Structure formats: C-alpha cells, structure tokens
Amino acid sequence: MLSSVRLIRRTVRLVHNPVCNPSRSFMDLKVLVSSLNDFASLSLAESWDNVGLLVEPSPPHTVHTLFLTIDLTEQVMEEALQKKVDLILSYHPPIFRPLKRITWKTWKERLVIRALENRVGIYSPHTAYDASPQGVNSWLAKGLDTIFSLGVCTSRPIHPSKAPTYPTAGTHRVEFSVNGTEDLDKVISVVKDITDVSVTSFSTRTDEEEQTRVSLNCSQEALMQVVAFLSQSRQFYQKTEILSLEKPLLLHAGMGRLCTLDESVSLATMIERIKRHLKLPHVRLALGVGRTLESPVKVVALCAGSGSKVLQGTEADLYLTGEMSHHDVLDAASQGVTVVLCEHSNTERGFLSDLRDMLRAHLENKIDIILSEADRDPLCVA
Fold first, then answer.
1. pTM, full prediction
2. Which of 123, 111, 132 has the alpha carbon at shortest distance from 87?
3. 298, 260 in Cβ contact below 8 A?
4. Of 99-108, 201-210, 264-273, 339-348, where does mean pLDDT reach its minimum?
C-alpha cells in the first residue's frame, strides 16, 4: 500500500534589491563623466571655479547610482554611503581652496577620506550649470510666470558666456601695408618662421598708389615677436594696426537672467509666485525707494546663489537671488530696485528634481539617479 503524499504549495516572494541586482545597468566612471561634461560643458564655468571630477576612486570604477545634492556635508555623505551610491554630484564643490593635507581634522578633509575609503567619486558642475541654457537660473526664472498667469516670461543671460574657442586661429590680428614686392617677400619670409602665425594678403589702392595689405593672425606669444620685427621698420610700424580678437557670445548661456513679463504684476503677486516655486514660507524683502507691495513688476533680474556681482548695475524692477551683501542691498534699494533674498541654496535646490529628469534622459536611463534627503540650506527662520 502506497503511503499518501501531501503536496504543500508555497508562495515565494521575490524581493527586488537594487544594490545586489547584478543585471542592473551601470556606466564606467570615465564614460559617465564624459557624458556629464557633454550635458553642460565645463567651459561655461567661471575661471575661478573648481569644477569637474574632484575625487576619483582607483580605476576601473563603475557607477550604478548617481546621487544629487547641492551641498556635500558630513550628514549628506553619511546618507550617500547608507544608500551605497557610486558617484556624488555635488552642485557646490566640496573642494574649493587647495587642501594641503588629508587628515581627520577638518570636515572637508574627512569627506575626501570617506569617499575614497568607500570608493565613491565626487563630481561638481557649479557655475557650468549656473550658465547652462537648461541650468539653475533658467529653472529659477520659471517661477516668475505660473499657469495662473496670463503673461509670458522671456529671459536672456545678464552676462552671456563666450564660446570656448576663437572662430579663427590666434587671439590677435595684425594688419599693415607694404608698398614694394621686395619688401613684401621679406615680410612674408620672416613672419612665416614665427610659430602660431597665419598670413593672408590682398591688393589695395591708396592715393593712386598700389599697395599690399598684410593680415596676420597670431597667438599672444607670437604677437610680441611680430611687433618686434615690425618695429625695426618705421615704414611698417607706423601703418600697423593690432586688433584683439574676441570669442563670440553664446546668446542663451551665461550668468544670471534678465526676465521680462508680457504683463506686469504687483510685487505682492510676484513674491507669492517666488515662494510657491521655491516652496518657502518666508523670504527676505528690501523695498526699493518709492515702492510698495502694490508696485508693478515687469522686469526681474535674477541670479541663483549669491547675486551681488552678477546683478549689480542691472536695470530691473526686482532683484531675485539667494544672498547679497548689506551694502549691495542698500545700493539697489536706493535706485528703486526691490530685492528679494531667499538664502543661497534655497534658490538652487529645487532645480535638482529637474536635473534628475534631464540626466535620466541624457544618460538613457543607464543608471539610477536619486536625490539627497538630508541636503538643506544651513539657515532657517527660528
């Protein structure tokens, strides 16, 4: 007689673990950094800034999770390590001034130690994202015009960025005229031997006299050699013009934004829009001389973060920024410009959600991108 066998059905729950899942997408760190640089060129950053990859674990290093924050504090670093991220994009560079040593003494040195010990890279875009057409200032400008408004806000950079390279070779153009063929041959022979000089010439006619106009494009270093040669001949030197070549402006990239509404609104309405966009219960306000909460606002000059230098001298009804010095606020208000201050990183942090979505599309969803929950402005209203 066969004994009965009882079959018991068991339900097995599969728990998704994004950290341990070997099939999860990833990117090599160098490839990811290259893609981040393509998203917003580091050439847009200010010359004083410290941008790009600041901390690099020993290669090869793969990135499964990118972690976005405005400030990389020790509390944010602890959050990043708990979430087992591979690369931190810290909007503000945690390494700005040169570090002379890496010890446990200061909090910024400890950040570097913990990042390297846990094989976490740190990347900072800062002013490259300030200037980018799809960057933080463009995001801040969105808050000036809401779906409840009938007007439209158009904006342009207050200080447009310049193209990273010159459209032609060299930084200077030297032009002068030569009368005879013999002199022309001598000049061409000498300048062609100078490094970083390109030569063009064309015939001209001045006061019934045939001449050859010589145009040299040269680098800053080559310019001194060209001038030294031309100064040997009074004939050439007195007819020499030196032009400084400028890189072309990028019309949609640059620091700050000057925003113009099609229809003006009251200052009180504008303040409410700003608070709603930044999710802030309070802002700081300095009324321009002769202004009230009912005064119309049509032109707004804004700069995320610290706006004193960027906004200074700009004609507008309102300055919107995170922080300005006491005396810069007084100067603006004396000229009838109202100033709204929201604290430095409060004018930047909301951009991270948009940045996450844009980077997901740019990186084709190859990695996870998450926002810090511990990141916040150090100042609050008590």
1. 0.84
2. 123
3. yes
4. 201-210
For residue 355, pLDDT over 80 is answered with yes
B/e letters for 21-30, b = 16+ CB within 10 Å, e = fewer, are eeeeebbebe
Alpha-carbon radius of gyration of the chain: 29
**Sign (positive/negative) of CA torsion 264, 265, 267, 271?**
negative
Express each pLDDT in 104-123 by its tens digit: 999 999 999 999 999 999 99
Q: Which helix (H) or strand (E) holds 214?
A: strand 209-218
Q: Take residue 3 and report the two structure tokens written for it.
A: 């004994």
> Mapping DSSP to helix (H, G, I), strand (E, B) and coil, where does residue 327 land?
helix
DSSP state at residue 74? H
Distances (CA, A) of 186 to 68, 157, 214, 230, 272: 61, 48, 12, 11, 72
**CA atoms within a 13 Å half-sphere pointing along the CA-CB vector of 91:** 29
**Tens-place pLDDT, residues 205-229:** 777 678 888 899 999 999 999 999 8
Burial of 32 (0-12, 13-18, 19+ CB in 10 A): buried
Here the tokens at position 116 are 């390297």
Strand order in the sheet with 209-218: 197-206, 209-218, 172-178, 241-244
| pLDDT average, residue stretch 154-164 | 94
Under 8 Å between Cβ of 129 and 45: no
What are the backbone dihedrals phi and psi of residue 318, each rounded to the nearest 5 degrees, phi first?
Answer: -145, 135
